[in-house]
Write a structure and sequence with these properties.
The complex is a heterotetramer. Chain A is an all-alpha fold. Chain A has helices at 13-17, 23-43, 46-71, 79-97, 101-120, 128-148, 150-153, 175-197, 200-210, 212-217, 222-248, 258-271, 276-300, 307-332, 336-349; strands spanning 159-161, 166-167, 170-171, 250-252. Helix content of chain A is 74%, strand content 3%. Chain A is globular. By secondary structure, chain B is α/β, with parallel strands linked by helices. Chain B has 14 helices and twelve strands. Chain B has a seven-stranded mixed beta sheet, with helices on both faces. A five-stranded parallel beta sheet of chain B has the order 2-1-3-4-5, sandwiched between helices. In chain B, α4 links the parallel β3 (86-87) and β4. In chain B, α2 (29-48) crosses α11 and α5 packs parallel to α7. Chain B is globular, with a radius of gyration of 21 Å. By secondary structure, chain D is an all-alpha fold. Chain D contains eleven helices and two strands. Chain D has a two-stranded antiparallel ribbon. The relative contact order of chain D is 0.19. The chains are: A mainly alpha, B alpha/beta, C alpha/beta, D mainly alpha. Chains in contact: A-B, A-D, B-D, C-D. The C-D interface holds C 49, 51, 54, 75-77, 79-81, 85-88, 92-97, 101-102, 104-106, 108-109, 113, 153-154, 157 and D 168, 171-172, 174-175, 177-190, 293.
Chain lengths: 355, 405, 264, 299
């Protein structure tokens, strides 16, 4: 992730494959860790922490989707559906059985993974646009099922209220308390994915993305690995759903609609497909964009527009910016924010001898 | 940067801040773009008259696009900026914020949507529906049908056509219960989202089931299509009553205009039309400033609901200021202020609303306006129906909820 | 008629494929372009037809001239309008279009639309097998029929010159003969100019008037077809004939030396 | 068997066919683009919405009669689609399918924002000179707007069908769809046909916008029509005009019947959900849809 290669010589393959190959990277990670462990919770206001918390949740989901779409090349417009599967699984376990968070979260993920595998089965036969629409269909079918099976949804309101998670007897309710809880899962997702992508499975995913028939010829069981990708990706989505549920206090399928699925796709595209760091950037960017637009316009737009115009302008400009940025990144910088970051990084890569 | 902004907003003197969530984009945008200007205009009107006891009101609006995470984010933002309460928009958003309201002791309003049981002020101390909830609306619709059909529903057939989402399901248990009480036959017809085609449901109602009365609880595109479809199938629109979110000008326009919708009964929790003193005052304010009144004002149903929302908040703050003797009220003061609202009519735009610590719904009043010529004409007075049954249900549900948590 | 003057072709601004190719095809003659796989024959054709542009290739030096006009900057449809049409190797029919529609598509650039129908009939006369199947999707034709169709389709644009890329590839010997007979007939009856790319040098040289041999992106040998047929190197490398039966070690050395000269 | 409510079934069938043919019209816009350029336009619903806004805006803001408004909508959409092809889609040629999907999804957001800013958030009408009195045909009650909609849709579908099958330009478009490179070698200006395909899709969207807009009223919700079209296209096969028609009719009829008979049994709206189930079932058996052509992939 962090590079300044000057003076570093690798003497084994293991060193080359290491997660953090360079000493400077270790220092950088340490710095970032200190920032997120101390600076953020101590300096940020509750409101900013709320934003950061939403980013942390989005990071888990975005990385999950990136595993499927960015690394394995299988597009999904149905991740909102997997999130609601995770959310309702956990909510039912929590409310009916009083299951603690450390069981509810993986349980939500596993159920979502199971559904993900079922949705992924057609990926053997169909691809591209057909698969995209099949995943979209799965989203509708999941929503319909939750809406109509009260055994799952807990009643006609289809909302299940969930008590806050308690860690060692502590109830986590305020943004400050939830911050560390969510940070833990976001970091777990990042580290797990970085490791996964260095493994045999990760390499198989990338082979399938780059050329699936060729991957099959060199002996990768495409079907099995595609299902792995669907399972792992929807596991992350399920976990994201549970985190949302804990964070918002309710499980509600209406908040996991197509727009959410598209939002997550936008995150990984703007961040840069097939990159964990890109997914993190994208999650932060898309979560903060509406807020930034609003704050900017309400504080500086007054010069040009009346308050009334600004109220109409803000949400619609956010839409336009959101859509426009997706198009912009696709055309101008397909590798997304991650590429911009690498450009900066490459400058320092051979520093101080960067000529 | 954001920290600096927050500081700026707080620095203004003698301002009382209310968080305001809107839906100017997203699936329910037709409502938000009309409703929110109403709230702002009323608050501007009060401010232009010197505010409430010298305090200016600031409704800080955010668009949530009907999504929950931004609603939570904005709630936290408003709370941090020192808001005395929050105007919520949307049922899932209300459910998500409910726990937080209680925890932070912040009053929040959910007029005409949200958690039906939250009319019970004992179990939902900080949530204020401040208008007829879905149960009251369903009960009122049955009562209206009963009156229209000559005072008895025995052996009659009623069709309930609903948007197939949680909010659409909400009135169903009440109507089902009433079908046993009143002895009518009930059949339900679901309109699944996105509801851009309802022709087969309409055919099933008008051609096959042929009910004596239709209760329409749909949103978005569907109400307009139902009006048009029933009309084309020769079903009398005078025997259709729409709950509050199928009762706007947009629905009439979508159906093809006033001429198509003649006789259609709309249920309102704020008066429809422009003929109210407060609307005249707002128009006068715009005239004085030399500006055109906003286009949203023509959409009287939603606009007036916005005005009503603003007015109820102003009334609550006014009450709170009597409690604090003119000092800046806390959110809890505003909560108490809401519970002091008594017989508040806003010159006829509002039902005679009385909110108490027990009853946050304010009585569950509605009024039916019928489409006649080029507008809405009152068909009934403000009324409510089967009140005991509704209140009983609110209590029972609230108790269950309390036990579950 | 057609002249390539020392052209150089670069793909992706990086890969140099043709390194100065010059050749000339005389009007009404069949010119054969011979060479092994990867020698640059197809690229040469694409440089003429303008299809390089769609593959991010570019003529960076030299010029392609046809009837006194430069072609190397023109997009493919304008090249077709000027009377040159390329026939791909591998019988690339429009698989989902019928035989007749394939032919119609071939006449796309023609202004005289009234006579397209007659032209189709003439193609059917030339290839009776196609006439029988005129309403069938081209994807279901046999290999030979498809080859006839792509040639017929090319003729639909009323070209002055046809660039034929490996028409014999993957066809049975009898069919190859049939196809080559047609090519000869086109030259004789319609005075069509043909640039024929082939690996099967024996066949190509039997109908060609003039021949070029390419290796590694350049022309290494040229001459009248009859002369080339007699050239011992051609005989050995393309016609598969040995000068003598015996294989001796010095011959291997010589072979190597000659080979090296070509690659030079 | 005999005690089935035949009259009701007939009514539902007729209704399904009418609605289905209007779905087919929207699906056609999608198919045109996919067929000719291999691109997927996920903003088809927003195209319809935007066209509706153009027509409604021309009527209400400028006071044009309906047919001039409709014409302006067609023109506006053609120009818009041309520009779009050039600015957004052309740079994405040859990129993975997800790029085009996401670009058009993004475009959908832009269009929604622009439409609200330009035309306001309210619902507007497109007053077509079509009566409200239903046409009675035996037991059938046919709303005139739906009849007109279905008529125009079918006329255009037939027109496009003829155009594609018989006309020189149609043959060329199909040739481009079949193989861009070979089409180029035949002297077909491929880029011009890409632009033409988008322009035609613009025409179709404009028609859809005017018809659906007249039926539903014009606001941002009109874009939701786009969601109905996915099962239609997939069922029929993405690259087949006949498929769009048949898919549209199937979805229309299935929706109509399921709302009439299935809904009361399960107590919920199955209308949206059944077509998607059907679509997945078809995908499992025939991944290319009923009329779609099978693609041969090269390594």
């Amino acid at each position: 992730m962090f590079h300044s290669e000057t003076g570093v010589f690798k003497t084994s393959y293991a060193a080359d494959m290491a997660l953090l190959p360079l000493p400077v990277a270790r220092w950088a990670v340490l710095g970032i860790a200190l920032f997120f462990l101390f600076v953020v919770p101590l300096v940020f206001s509750a409101y900013l922490l709320t934003l950061v918390n939403l980013v942390l949740i989005a990071v888990v989901g975005a990385i999950g989707l990136d595993i499927l779409t960015g690394y394995t090349g299988q597009i999904s417009i149905g991740h909102g559906g997997f999130m609601s599967v995770g959310a309702y699984t956990a909510a039912n376990l929590i409310v009916r059985l009083g299951v603690p968070f450390w069981l509810a979260i993986p349980a939500g993920g596993l159920m979502a993974a199971l559904i993900g595998i079922i949705v992924g089965i057609p990926s053997l036969r169909i691809k591209g646009i057909y698969l995209a629409i099949a995943t979209l269909a799965s989203q509708f079918i999941i929503a319909w099922t939750i809406n109509h099976v009260t055994w799952i949804s807990g009643g006609i309101e289809a909302s299940i209220q969930v008590p806050p998670p308690s860690v060692f007897g502590w109830k986590l309710q305020t943004p400050e308390q939830l911050y560390f809880f969510l940070l833990f899962f976001a970091v777990l997702a990042i580290v797990a994915t970085l490791n996964l992508m260095r493994s045999r499975i990760g390499r198989a995913f990338i082979a399938i993305r780059d050329q699936d028939i060729a991957a099959e010829i060199i002996g990768i069981n495409i079907f099995r690995y595609k299902l792995y990708a669907f399972a792992i990706s929807s596991f992350y989505a399920g976990v994201t759903g549970v985190l949302y549920t804990y964070y918002l206090g309710i499980a509600n399928y209406e908040q996991f609609g197509i727009d959410v699925s598209i939002n997550y796709l936008a995150m990984i595209i703007i961040g840069g497909l097939g990159s964990v760091l890109g997914a993190v950037f994208g999650a932060a960017f898309i979560t903060i964009l509406p807020e930034a637009t609003r704050l900017f316009l309400t504080h500086f737009g007054g010069v040009l527009f009346s308050q009334d115009t600004i109220r109409t302008l803000v949400p619609n400009l956010t839409l336009i910016l959101f859509g426009g940025l997706i198009i912009f990144f696709l055309i101008v910088e397909p590798e997304g924010l991650n590429r911009l970051w690498r450009n900066i990084r490459n400058y320092f890569r051979l520093w101080p001898f960067s000529y | 940067m954001a920290i600096a902004f927050a500081g700026l907003a707080q620095a203004e003197d003698k301002t009382i801040l209310i968080g305001m969530q809107c839906d100017r984009t997203g699936p329910t945008q037709v409502v938000g773009t009309m409703l929110c200007p109403g709230t702002h205009d009323y608050i501007d009107l009060i401010n232009s008259q010197g505010g409430v006891d010298g305090w200016k009101i600031d409704a800080s609006e955010v668009d949530t696009a009907y999504q929950v995470p931004p609603a939570v984010e904005e709630y936290e933002h408003a709370k941090q900026q020192g808001a005395v309460g929050i105007m919520i928009y949307g049922t899932p958003q209300t459910e998500a914020l409910n726990q937080r309201l209680e925890q932070d002791k912040m009053p929040g309003t959910s007029p005409g949507f949200g958690i039906a049981a939250s009319g019970d002020g004992q179990y939902y101390p900080y949530l204020f529906p401040i208008a007829a909830n879905y149960w009251s609306q369903g009960a009122a619709a049955v009562k209206f049908a009963k009156d229209q059909l000559g005072g008895s529903l025995k052996g009659k057939k009623i069709a309930y056509i609903f948007y197939d989402n949680p909010a659409g399901h909400e009135p169903m248990p009440v109507i089902e219960e009433l079908s046993k009480v009143e002895g009518f036959q009930l059949q339900t017809f679901a309109v699944p989202p996105p509801g851009v085609d309802v022709s087969s449901q309409v055919l099933a109602i008008a051609q096959e089931y042929r009910p004596d009365f239709v209760i329409d609880h749909t949103f978005g595109k569907s109400p307009a299509l139902i009006i048009k479809g029933l009309k084309q199938n020769g079903y009398p629109l005078t025997h259709v009553v729409a709950l509050v979110w199928a009762s706007g000008e947009a629905d009439i326009m979508g159906a093809g205009g006033w001429s198509v919708a003649q006789g259609y009964n709309t249920m309102q929790f704020a008066g429809a039309g422009e003929d109210y003193p407060v609307i005249k005052e707002i128009q006068a304010m715009y005239k004085k400033e030399g500006k055109e009144p906003p286009a949203a004002m023509k959409s009287t149903v939603y606009y007036n609901r916005g005005v009503q929302q603003g007015a109820l908040w102003v009334a609550a703050i006014k009450n709170a200021l009597t409690l604090t003797h003119g000092q800046k009220p806390t959110p809890t003061d505003v909560k108490k202020g809401f519970e002091m609202i008594h017989d508040f009519t806003l010159g006829g735009l509002n039902a005679p609303l009385t909110i108490t610590a027990d009853d946050h719904e304010g009585g569950g009043w509605v009024k039916i306006f019928r489409v006649k010529d080029e507008g809405f004409v009152p068909e009934t007075q403000w009324f409510r129906a089967y009140r005991d049954l509704i209140v009983d249900r609110e209590h029972k549900t609230a108790q269950q909820m309390a036990k579950a948590n | 008629m057609l002249a390539l003057n020392n052209i150089e072709v670069v793909y992706d601004n990086a890969i140099l494929v043709l390194r100065g190719v010059s050749l000339a095809a005389k009007a009404g003659q069949i010119t054969a372009l011979l060479g092994a796989n990867g020698a640059g024959k197809t690229t040469t054709l694409k440089a003429i037809s303008g299809l390089l542009h769609s593959e991010r290739g570019e003529v960076t030096k030299g010029s392609v001239e046809f009837a006194g006009e430069r072609l190397d900057r023109l997009p493919p449809h304008q090249v077709v309008e000027r009377g040159i049409v390329q026939v791909f190797e591998g019988r690339r029919v429009f698989a989902n279009l019928t035989v007749a529609e394939n032919l119609t598509a071939g006449a796309h650039t023609r202004r005289d639309r009234g006579t397209v129908k007659d032209s189709i009939d003439r193609i059917f006369e030339m290839f009776p097998a196609l006439a029988e199947r005129h309403n069938q999707a081209a994807g279901y034709l046999s290999g030979g029929e498809q080859q006839m169709l792509v040639i017929g389709r090319a003729l639909m644009s009323n070209p002055k010159m046809v660039l034929l890329d490996e028409p014999s590839l993957g066809l049975a010997p009898q069919l190859i003969e049939e196809i080559f007979a047609v090519i000869r007939r086109l030259k004789e009856e319609r005075h069509l100019t043909v640039l024929l790319v082939e690996q099967n040098a024996t066949l190509a040289l039997t109908i060609a008037d003039h021949g070029y041999v390419m290796e590694n992106g350049r022309i290494v040998l040229e001459g009248p077809a009859a002369a080339l047929q007699q050239n011992s190197d051609i005989k050995e490398f393309y016609l598969g004939l040995n000068e003598a039966g015996a294989r001796k070690s010095y011959r291997e050395v010589k072979h190597y030396r000659r080979r090296k000269r070509w690659l030079g | 068997m005999l005690d089935l409510p035949w009259r009701f079934i007939a009514i539902l069938l007729a209704n399904g066919l009418l609605v289905g043919s209007m779905y087919a019209l929207v699906a056609l816009g999608f198919v045109l683009i996919y067929k000719a350029t291999d691109a997927i336009n996920f903003a088809q619903g927003e195209f319809v919405m935007f066209a509706g806004f153009l027509a409604a805006g021309a009527t209400h803001l400028a006071g044009f009669p309906w047919w001039i408004s409709a014409l302006l909508a067609v023109l506006g959409m053609v120009v818009f689609a041309f520009g779009l092809e050039r600015v957004v889609l052309r740079p994405l040629l040859g990129r993975p399918i997800i790029a085009v999907i996401m670009a058009t999804l993004g475009l959908g957001f832009v269009l929604r924002g622009v439409a609200t800013l330009a035309f306001g958030g309210g619902t507007q009408t497109i007053p077509l000179p079509v009566g409200d009195e239903p046409v009675l045909l035996g037991p059938l009650i046919l709303p005139p707007i739906q009849l007109v909609g279905a008529g125009v849709s079918l006329a255009f579908l037939c027109g496009f069908g003829w155009f594609f099958l018989k006309s020189r330009i149609g043959v060329a478009m199909r040739a481009v769809a079949d193989s861009q490179q070979v089409a180029m070698a035949m002297g077909i200006n491929v880029r011009r046909y890409f632009a033409l395909a988008w322009a035609l899709a613009g025409v179709v969207s404009a028609l859809g916008g005017v018809l659906w807009g007249a039926m539903l009223g014009v606001d941002n919700q009109l874009a939701l029509v786009g969601l109905k079209v996915f099962p239609v296209m997939i069922l029929g096969g993405l690259d087949s005009i006949l498929g769009a028609v048949v898919g549209g009719l199937i979805v229309g009829v299935v929706e109509s019947l399921s709302a009439g008979f299935l809904d009361p049994l399960v107590g919920g709206g199955t209308k949206d959900f059944i077509p998607y189930l059907l679509m997945i079932a078809v995908l499992m058996v025939r991944p290319e849809g009923i009329f779609g052509r099978r693609r041969i992939e090269r390594v």
